[in-house]
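If you are new to this repository, start here. Below is one unmodified record pulled from the training split, so you can see the exact layout before writing a loader.
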Amino acid sequence: MDRIGQDIRALRKARGMTIADCAAALDRSVGWLSQVERGVTAPSVQDLGRIARLFDLNISFFFRSAARQPEEQGLIVRAADRSRIGSPGTGLAEELLSPGLTGGFEMIRSVFAPGSKSQGIRPAREKEDGGVVIAGRLVLHIDGRRFELGSGDSFQFTGASYAWENPGNEPAEVIWIVSPPIY
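And here is the target side for that same chain:
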């Protein structure tokens, strides 16, 4: 339960929500949410479903390492246990590669569908992004500048607005690093 509470706190903070904002959105008390975040109270499956929907996640996100050996939990993520995050309907399918959200960064595997584009420019936030293109082509628009990236190319930027597009006919796969964690 500690891990679930830590993940909920990290998700809430990454989205700039106060504990009162989050509790209100879940129709729960601040005290209850505080106890969940501290691992004192276990949320029901129904509560986890509402929390997952609030953060645009699948409920399985909260159980991603439950079947792992105790010594692996919080350290290792097996390929079969990756959590799908985000909305694939946008042309972007993502998996969380990090074992948790409480560290200084997170790792994400992003697959951009052929011909897909981000839905507008993502505003600058106080975070650092970096990554490497594993396959395909990706165009990044960072603070109004356009960069074409191919397999093996990497990038890094801090506090910048950006947009992406995959101009190719094949999926583009990118390993993305974000600090601090946003999922």
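Two things worth knowing about this chain: The chain is about 20% helix and 30% strand. The longest helix spans residues 2-14.
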